[in-house]
Amino acid sequence: MSKDLTGKPCAASVVKERKGAWRTNRGRRLPGAKDAKKETIKDQVKRLTAMDTDQVLQNATLFKDILDSADFEGSHLYKVITMLASKDLLEDTRSDRIYRLFLESNAMQACLRTTIIKQGAGRHQGNFLEECLKVMVEIVMRSAAPKELRGQLPLVELIEAWENSVRMGSSVARKGLSEDVITMLKCLEKTFPEEVSLDRVLGAKAPKKQRTVAEDATEILEASHYEEMPILPTSAEMIGHCAFEVQENMQTYEKCADYIQTHFMLLREDYIEPLRAGIKLFMQGRHSPKDLHVYTGVKVVGVLSTWEGLVYRIELRKEEIRKVSWEKSKQLMYGSLLCFSDDDFKSLIWATVWRRDPTLMSTKAQLDIRLPFDPWDDRLSPGKVFCCIENVTIYFEAYRHVLIALQNMRAPDVPFQHTLLSPQPDPLPPTYLKDDTDMFHFHNVFSSCEKADFSAPKSFRILAEWPPALRQALDLDPSQLDAVQHALTHQMALIQGPPGTGKTFVGLKIVQAILDNTRLLRHSPVLVVCYTNHALDQFLEGIFKFCESTVRIGSRSKSEQMMRRNLKELVMGVPPSREFNQARKVLTDRRDYLRDELTKALAQVDSHTVSAAQAKSLMSEQQFEEFYQGFRDYLGDSKEDFPEDPWVVDDDIWSRVMKEWLGTSDPSRFAPVPKHQGGGLPSFKTFGLSEDSDDDDYAPYGSKDDGDEEEAANEIYERKLDVDNEQAEQVDEKRKSRMDFFQELNNAWLPYLDEYYETLTPELRSLDWREENLWRLLPPQRREVYRQWLVEAHEEARGILPELAHLLERNAESKAALDRDRKLAVLREMQVVGMTTTAVSKYQQLLKELRPEVVIVEEAAEVLEAHILTALHPRTQHVVLIGDHQQLRPSTAVYRLSKNFHLDVSLFERLIHNGAAHVTLLQQRRMHPKISRLIKPLYPQLRDHSSTEKYPEVRGVAARCFFMTHFHLEDDEGESHSKQNTFEANFVSALCAHLVASGYEEAQITVLSPYLGQVRLLKRKIQRDSSTQGIAVTAVDNFQGEENDIIVISLVRSNRARQMGFLAVDNRINVALTRARHGLFIVGNTDMLEKHTLWSQILHELKSDECLAEKLPIVDKEQNGPFGVKSADEISVFLDDKIHLT
After folding, report:
1. Whose C-alpha in 63, 281, 627, 1072 is 20 to 30 A from the C-alpha of 31?
2. In whole angstroms, what is the distance from residue 195 CA to residue 187 CA?
3. d(Cα 224, Cα 228) in Å, to the nearest integer?
4. What is the percent of the chain where pLDDT is above 90?
5. Could you tell me the residue ranges of all domains in the chain?
6. Can you give the pLDDT at residue 155?
7. Looking at residue 691, what is its pLDDT?
8. C-beta separation of 62 from 27 below 8 A
9. What local confidence, expressed as pLDDT, does residue 539 receive?
10. How far is CA 442 from its chain centroid?
11. Kindly report the CA angle at 843 between 837 and 847, in degrees rounded to 5?
12. Phi then psi for 294, rounded to 5 degrees?
């Protein structure tokens, strides 16, 4: 570089070098340079950090390349943080891009958290923590929506590192926190009050929370916004004193905040109302034991520390659960919400089942529970006896994650507000599509559906008019091509697919087109969401054929191919980084230290004797020395057996001192154990209810399937993956850390000091043992002093427990954040991420950090709007919803909320009713025309593909579609809420045996019923016959999206009151009648259906060609017949086995 006369670089040289630095781009060799050494990341970092602010701003590309480098590690991060925290860069208004690059980089996500954890454990952090604080505050101050950064910034880890610094007296905090640091912490606290607490950093303890029903009621009255509302039900709500107001799910909304609040409140009420109704019925003695399980005499017997946080172990009465088969029972399954009370339900404690070990339940009647939000509740103390209620009509885990996600959502977080909130929204293209980015290539998309004699255009601008030649060249129904075009060119695309029209096929084409053409336009994988695990498996298997860069998040898959693509399986296959292992070791060491402190505190609280250390802490030095000398004087000549120095007295010696002073061999018998009442069945008078009061608000809606049990099993499976992962990775560590830690609690906890003093007489209350000669006290006074010692020591130890629980919870959250960073590193390398709607809500934090730009939802009309809303991110640019609002709607727990508040109206249906642009598929390829004609009233434009007319004739029955009517009444309901009809079950089981005997494979036949009670009865009947044991029997609601050659339907309802129940729901009728390819046979009472609009049209169509009668026309094995049969006994004549005779 040339210099001027003073020896400084001349201006021309500076400008030349700056231009050169910009042009070289990532330090690449300039054209013509020879034998230039390749620049390492170390060299790049050194060169970047040596630049002044202007040069850094000009070399933003170099900065981005450093952050994105696979070689980036902690040693580089220190220098980058120092550069970002420099005063010149912080004060330069042009540096927004630099901080944004850092925020969005893989380095920030993968490296910053681990480095903060590692540094936060040491005494010599230098300026690193302060520099990190400066950078985070700067990023927050520059952000237009700072609260969106909650999941991106490692706030919890940074604050805990500062706490450790203050606690350990590190170099950065030895003289107290500087005013600058305090100001920055206050800034973060204002924006993130849940994650950042200045008081906690400075060492202040959180106050104990004691809530009453009155305080709950006040909270309800004062809370007017969803952000302030408790997710768990309050005591006041449960006893009906007051409740939050809910609004209906409207077609349009003026304010986005009202939109979020409406769905939060509706979803919250959907799980709370069954709880409220169940408890009221229980208090009246009118509850159903099948819906509400009541456990009395419940006790807390221990505490566990796990990688997920603190867990309580409770013990039930063995006689109440003696007959339960825990290997099969749904009772007390993972995630079940439990309500505890020891005061006749004046106050409530909510917890969820964390682990139900069958062996532990069978032998000790014990299970593990966890508080959903706060890690510690002082009311759950040993010695108390609780009554516990479990309502099995709702599954809290399915609600909890969505409610948390909605409560954390703010108006700016919601994308597409013009479409979501407005009436008749104007269609807009995805924001990543511009005039210069809409050239799409369809070579792969159209290759499988080109006609032999035509050549389809392979590339064209999708925002312009599509080439007319496509319709002649592709073997696609015109409506399918319209659907592909609509999906690719609309920001919020809606595709309605009536039964059999190939929604999944079209969905796969859309995904393939997006993947092939948006790799450079997207910065995140495509998110695919399905309602059920089975649908997700099928969809991802289809995607995997053209894109192997696919990962499945969440619940256990039944597809072997997708099980290998499970995120946790993939993460286990990637060795963790050195930084990760170091950070996890720091967390493990910290956890073990906290567990040791917890053990000590619990042992002190659980003890009913005063230890030597506690006595020395309670007394002044002079008083302890005088007391011990008094003991030696009391012994006289025997004092030689005891040391002279009182400060070497240990617990063994102190125990002997106490026995002599108190005149007893067992000092623990003087412990003032409170007498706890409760734990039995409370009185209904607590609720102010009369025994004959009624509650008709709650009525279960929809047939409850096995989804809750499956979700619980999936969660247990995933937790096992977590444990396997941790064990596998710890093999190489020198010291294996303890896994779950358990502290047994044997004794009742003593009262707090204030509570204890209230029980004393004025004389004993006035006794001040600190001013007395303890050896001159009378025996009753000595015992009273000992009790006060016990209570004081107990209260001091007990006061530490909430703080330790909080620290262990924070430790668990940091570990979860570390694991999340590893998962994100894998996810960012993928092209497709697949999840169920439940997984979307559960993995909210992961999705928030992944920031999906393209979201595709299958069976979107069957998903509650809140679930889809929580899957969207502020940066989401493209959403494709595929479904059919004329088939099953979303299921809700409370019928009233569906009927009066439209909770069961999906986002898909609401937008279509709003007039949003959508495409309907018009050609079905599943059902024979004889079957598809039944749903023409619902889909008048639906056409049959020519291939459906070529199906083989049905064997065993002289009709392809037939309704056999009867007049046999349904069974009495009994204890079950569900309906069943024994006549129909016998007939259907015999018909299935006849169909198998006629040549059908068991796998070709499926039996459907709208009622789970009938499903269970049908399974028992069909399982009796070895020839039909492989036939699937399922509820109608669980079979949407499925099909089979032969479908047999048992409608069940037949009663004098003409109550149709589920049969009156058009959506359910639609699903039931559209599952069959070759043959459909319905068994039911037509008198129940004739006055229903849709059923009357269906019956009229069936009567038109004599496909409705009281006898089913069957043919025998030799094709003789038809023979009309109207009972199982008549079918049995044609069967070799007489097992179906009634």
Report:
1. 63
2. 12
3. 7
4. 50
5. 41-202, 292-392, 413-559+847-922, 925-1140
6. 85
7. 35
8. yes
9. 95
10. 37
11. 95
12. -115, 130
pLDDT (tens digit per residue) in 1021-1070:
999 999 999 999 999 999 988 999 999 999 999 999 899 988 999 999 99
Neighbouring CB atoms inside 10 A of 1020's CB total 11
Mean pLDDT of the chain: 85
- How far apart are alpha carbons 62 and 83 in whole angstroms? 14
Instruction: Decide: pTM greater than 0.85.
Output: no
pLDDT at position 476: 87
DSSP 1018-1073: HHHHHHTSTTSTT-EEEEGGG-TT--EEEEEEE-----TT---GGGG-HHHHHHHH
Kindly provide the b/e burial profile for residues 488-510, where b requires at least 16 CB atoms within 10 angstroms of the residue's own CB.
bbbbbbbbbbbbbbbbbbbbbbb
State the pLDDT at residue 435. Answer: 83
Q: Report how many helices (DSSP H) and strands (DSSP E) the chain contains, helices first.
A: 46, 26
Q: What are the b/e assignments for 801-833, b being 16+ CB within 10 Å?
A: bbbbbbbbbbbbbbbbbbbbbbbbbbbbebbbb
- Dig out the tokens for 401 from the structure: 């994650």
C-alpha angle 390-394-399 in degrees, rounded to nearest 5: 115
d(CA 1050, CA 531): 26
Q: What is the CATH number of domain 413-559+847-922?
A: 3.40.50.300
Q: Which of 617, 638, 639 is nearest to 628 (CA)?
A: 639
Which segment, 117-131, 216-230, 608-622, 917-931, is predicted with the most confidence on average? 917-931
Given a cut of 60, whether residue 834 has pLDDT beyond it is: yes
The answer as to CATH 2.40.30 being correct for domain 292-392 is: yes
pLDDT at 521 over 50: yes
Alpha carbon distances (Å) from 965 to 143, 1074, 1110: 67, 19, 5
The CATH architecture one would assign to domain 925-1140 is 3-Layer(aba) Sandwich (3.40)
Domains 292-392 and 413-559+847-922 fall in the same CATH topology: no
- At 362, give phi and psi (nearest 5°): -70, -40
Helices within 837-879 (DSSP H only): 837-842, 844-850, 865-869
Task: Measure the CA–CA gap between 333 and 562, rounded to whole angstroms.
Answer: 26
Q: How many residues does the chain have?
A: 1142
Q: What is the 3-state secondary structure (H, E, C) of 230-281?
A: CCCCCHHHHCCCCCCCCCCCCCCCCCHHHHHHHHHHHHHHHHHHHHHHHHHH
- Residue 787, classed as helix, strand or coil, is helix
Q: Which of 277-291, 612-626, 678-692, 737-751 has the lowest mean pLDDT?
A: 678-692
